Amino acid sequence: MPRVAVIDRSVLAVNIYRLLLRPLGVSILVARRYEEARPWFFRKSGIDLAIFNSNTFGKKFIEYFSRFEKDEPLVVTPKIFLCRETEKEWKKRLGSLPNTWVIERPFHPDEFLKLVGGLIMNKK
Predict the structure, then answer these.
(1) pLDDT tens across 57-103, in order?
(2) How crowded is residue 11: how many other Cβ atoms within 10 Å of its Cβ?
(3) Relative to the CA of 78, which of 15, 65, 98, 111 has its CA 20 to 30 Å away?
(4) What is the Cα 31 distance to its own chain's centre?
């Protein structure tokens, strides 16, 4: 079963991800910040996909971004970053990372599911 890490501070959003991703038959691990999720990427079982909401960055975007560039297991893991329209600089920088897709919030559920499903199927 594919393992998907969802990093989002919103409990409501996490519940929506659970509903959206249920048809894909994935195991979802939830964290409010990258620090909580980071160990998952270093385990033997690893993570097949990471979904980050930009609300987890706060004022630490530069610190997180440098980790996204250097944490080897995260570098090779497919990642989706969900950003607001106004976060233009963040979207640009995040989009430059390997194995990364950036989606603007709010997004259409069908497009989100198509991307997630494609990334998980390519991982198998």
Answers:
(1) 989 999 999 988 888 898 999 999 999 999 999 999 999 999 999 99
(2) 10
(3) 15
(4) 11
Q: Are 21 and 116 in contact (CB under 8 A)?
A: yes
Residue closest to 48 by CA, chosen among 92, 93, 105, 4: 4
CATH number, domain with residue 50: 3.40.50.2300
Residues paired with residue 80 on neighbouring β-strands, in sequence order: 51, 101
Quick one: which of 64, 68, 88 has its CA closest to 77? 68
Secondary structure element (H or E) that encloses residue 82, with its range? strand 79-84
CA-wise closest residue to 120 among 8, 14, 20, 21: 21
C-alpha to C-alpha distance for 16 and 22, rounded to whole angstroms: 10
Q: How many domains does the chain have?
A: 1
